[in-house]
């Protein structure tokens, strides 16, 4: 994400202009948007025109609209973000108060205005615009005929490619069709790795599967790398780690990241820290529920927890925020999609809550 302009007043009202540069930036933007915000962006509008003869036609025009946000819809698979609201600025194509839906686009700037920019939202912008917050863990979760290529970032698990090839069963006396199909499958996965994984950023590539599929694929991968003189694979061979998974589906990645051997290997990456922190969250939720909280869109409740988060940070504590789209947060859908671990002495929590309550009163 690129920050073009930031103008926030002392009362925390103001606006920022951002340019989403990659798919993950749409997820960050989804977390920045709230009902009641003002969003200004380029969009396509279908307009009706009437000729001098009275005939009516329609055309699609590109224009810039400013909406008061009412509905926010995020497609996690396609990483597409649609925002519906009413037009609040005069426009030659759209009347004041008319409804419109803006689909935010990569590499097109938008301006977001809020009455209050709280610390959680400002931290999200800082995270989204920090080049260091890129995916440093990649994974190929596979089984015969199916492979999911994913990137694990601090914010979400991003599916970059899904490879599916029908593998015929082996027949008595002949394995030709089976072996040819398997080779096509491995070649497609290899090309997916070269196309979607940035070896300059990624520190580790996990190759996981049930049975021997992972071992057979790694053997094929580096034999082909030698044959094709693919230097980028040969130079990064040490980054590949073979590990067991129960299936080739994306959800198996969570069990892979919980493997002690994998955890040790990923100790210097961002993903491992998030997974470990989530385990701590669930333990805390069971044993000391007053010290763990999960988020709400309700403004009053959100404000209370934002103040609590600020108090935790001021007292030297840690706050971890998880998304339901991160591999560490698959279970968070039932917790409204966002969770936070607040680490500080229990007495401080009570004091902070009392302060928050008195502020509301």
From TrEMBL:
Reported cofactor(s): a divalent metal cation
Q: Where in the cell is it found?
A: Cytoplasm
InterPro entries given for it? Answer: eFR1_2_sf, eRF1_2, eRF1_3, eRF1_Pelota-like_N, Pelota/DOM34_N, Pelota_N, Ribosomal_eL30-like_sf, TF_pelota
Molecular function (GO) terms for this protein are: metal ion binding
GO terms in the biological process aspect are:
nonfunctional rRNA decay; nuclear-transcribed mRNA catabolic process, no-go decay; nuclear-transcribed mRNA catabolic process, non-stop decay; ribosome disassembly; RNA surveillance
Residues annotated as domain eRF1/Pelota-like N-terminal: 1-130
Q: State a single Pfam family of this protein.
A: eRF1_3
The answer on whether this UniProt entry bears the keyword Cytoplasm reads yes
A single GO cellular-component term from the record reads:
cytoplasm
Establish whether keyword Transmembrane helix is in the entry: no
Q: Which UniProt keywords apply?
A: Cytoplasm, Metal-binding
Q: Which SMART domains is this protein grouped with?
A: eRF1_1 (SM01194)
Instruction: Write out the similarity annotation.
Output: Belongs to the eukaryotic release factor 1 family. Pelota subfamily.
Function noted in UniProt: Component of the Pelota-HBS1L complex, a complex that recognizes stalled ribosomes and triggers the No-Go Decay (NGD) pathway. In the Pelota-HBS1L complex, pelo recognizes ribosomes stalled at the 3' end of an mRNA and engages stalled ribosomes by destabilizing mRNA in the mRNA channel.
**Protein name in UniProt:** Protein pelota homolog
């Amino acid at each position: 994400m690129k920050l073009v302009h930031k103008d926030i007043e002392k009362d925390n009202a103001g606006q920022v202009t951002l340019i989403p540069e990659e798919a993950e930036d749409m997820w960050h933007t989804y977390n920045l948007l709230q009902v009641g915000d003002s969003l200004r962006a380029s969009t396509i509008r279908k307009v009706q025109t009437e000729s001098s003869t009275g005939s009516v036609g329609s055309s699609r025009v590109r224009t810039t609209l400013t909406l008061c946000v009412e509905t926010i819809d995020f497609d996690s698979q396609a990483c597409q973000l649609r925002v519906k609201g009413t037009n609040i600025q005069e426009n030659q194509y759209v009347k004041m108060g008319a409804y419109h839906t803006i689909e935010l686009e990569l590499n097109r700037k938008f301006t977001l205005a809020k009455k209050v920019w709280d610390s959680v939202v400002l931290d999200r912008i800082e995270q989204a615009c920090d080049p260091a917050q890129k995916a440093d863990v990649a994974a190929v979760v596979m089984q015969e005929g199916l492979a999911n290529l994913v990137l694990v970032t601090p914010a979400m698990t991003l599916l970059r490619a899904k490879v599916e090839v029908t593998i015929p069963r082996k027949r008595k006396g002949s394995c030709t069709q089976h072996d040819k199909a398997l080779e096509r499958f491995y070649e497609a996965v290899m090309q997916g790795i070269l196309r979607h994984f940035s070896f300059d950023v990624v520190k580790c590539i996990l190759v996981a599967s049930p049975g021997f599929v992972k071992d057979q694929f790694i053997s094929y991968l580096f034999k082909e790398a030698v044959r094709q003189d693919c230097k980028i694979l040969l130079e990064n061979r040490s980054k590949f780690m073979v590990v067991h998974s129960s299936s080739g589906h994306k959800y198996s990645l969570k069990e892979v990241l919980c493997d002690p051997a994998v955890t040790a290997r990923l100790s210097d990456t961002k993903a491992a820290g998030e997974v470990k922190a989530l385990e701590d969250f669930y333990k805390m939720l069971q044993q000391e529920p007053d010290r763990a909280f999960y988020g709400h869109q309700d403004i009053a409740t959100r404000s209370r927890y934002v103040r609590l988060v600020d108090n935790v940070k001021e007292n030297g504590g840690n706050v971890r925020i998880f998304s339901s789209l991160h591999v560490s947060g698959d279970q968070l859908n039932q917790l409204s999609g966002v969770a936070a671990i607040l680490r500080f002495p229990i007495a401080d929590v009570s004091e902070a809550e009392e302060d928050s309550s008195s502020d509301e009163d």
